[in-house]
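Narrative progress, year one. The postdoctoral researcher (J.K.) led the effort to move from monomer predictions toward full complexes, under supervision of the PI. The following entry was the first complex the group processed end to end, covering 450 residues in total.
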Amino acid sequence: MKARILVVEDEEKLRRVIELQLQSLGYEVDQAGTAEDALPRAAAADLILTDLRLPGMDGLGLLEQLRKRAVNAPVIVMTAFGTVEAAVEAMKAGAADFLPKPFSMDHLMTVVEKALEVRSLREENRALRQQLGGRYDFANIIGSSPPMLEILETVRRIAPKTSTVLLQGESGVGKDLVARAIHYQSPRRSRPFVKISCTAIPENLMESELFGYEKGAFTGANVAKPGKFEMADTGTVFLDEIADVPLQAQVKLLRVIQEREFERLGSNRTRQVDVRVIAATNADLRKAIASGAFREDLYYRLNVVPLVIPPLRERRGDIRRLVERFVHKYAEELDSAVSAISEGAMEVLMAHDWPGNVRQLENVIERSVLLCEGTTLEAADIKLDLTSTAQPAALETAFLPDGVTLDEHERNLIREALRRAGGNKSHAARLLGLSRNALRYRLTQMGIES
Ligand SMILES: Nc1ncnc2c1ncn2[C@@H]1O[C@H](COP(=O)(O)OP(=O)(O)OP(=O)(O)O)[C@@H](O)[C@H]1O
Ligand SMILES: [Mg+2]
């Protein structure tokens, strides 16, 4: 594929000469007369060639804006004769190279080719690292706190078996990560890993999703379709948000887990499957059983190996290494100059309560790295206030007010969330870190108008 080069130069004649030259070398060229005009086109470029002195925003300003937008195409700056300082400054601000004016077309070509080559090597490296990184290797699960060490030890022990695993823990604690680690550390690792997000499937489609259907099983079933269990044959089924499976489907789920057999909708042929089942939930299944929303027999079938992942605030010892991992990861991914984090910033992070757990910590680091202008993340660079990415509870759940029972407190929190959400249940559920179904279930359970 031809590389695409964006030329930013206010002198029209020079711009035209550069354009013709680059085109004759086989590059695709886009051009802009100002930095403002260049910005929206930068994301599509493989390389940016810009003048330092421009009307309006100058080349340095452009460099800064590009970095903020995580554009990682290399930038070559063209500088006027004799302005070495400006070139140095541009290199400090992240330019890949510079071209002192006037330059010969040969010189232009050499600098462009070199920058593009560095870029493609870097991209290749990144792709390789991602492939080889063994994303679901144990090495990727960070945890040196006593409860996490215990969990990892159990995972190591049970991964090679086919025992059913029930993962419990708040949103963002790492249930997904652990489920995949179990699969990829098992002899089934090269077989399918099929995740089923039970919340995402409408109640009336649940059974056809899980077990598939035959042609003509219902209106619209024009072709037969296998379900998730069939697709996962010889591999692993990951039932995420298991508490949201409707009661009716729970019966069938119980059977397939118990007997490893099922029928497609519209068929009476019994099919056998060989699957390992891993289930996860952030809801309290015992409560759900008490209220009749979850079958007790299914619970016992699932709870063969129970793994409860504690919230991050109960294992603050893991925060430091998680932060280091995420700073490194995002500095690389965003091509940022950030390479370290100050002790002050670390203290802020260690003291925070993390209602959205590891996911929230990761989001905070990503955003902080993205917006950081220096090479070290300082306390002031830590952007804790995330309205769009914060998962649950901006609501204060840390202490139970005097004389209030847990049930009352929960009821108050739900009322408050509904109030803040202007009655919108999906929004309220998000504030509480619950799925919409889980909130609905609590509302009914508590007799709050739903
Ligand atoms: N111990 C850990 N080490 C490294 N990364 C982690 C760890 N725990 C969680 N993460 C990262 O945090 C993010 C959230 O984790 P994950 O999706 O596994 O949470 P979850 O418990 O499944 O949440 P939910 O209940 O909302 O589905 C992921 O990007 C995951 O890679
Ligand atoms: Mg998950």
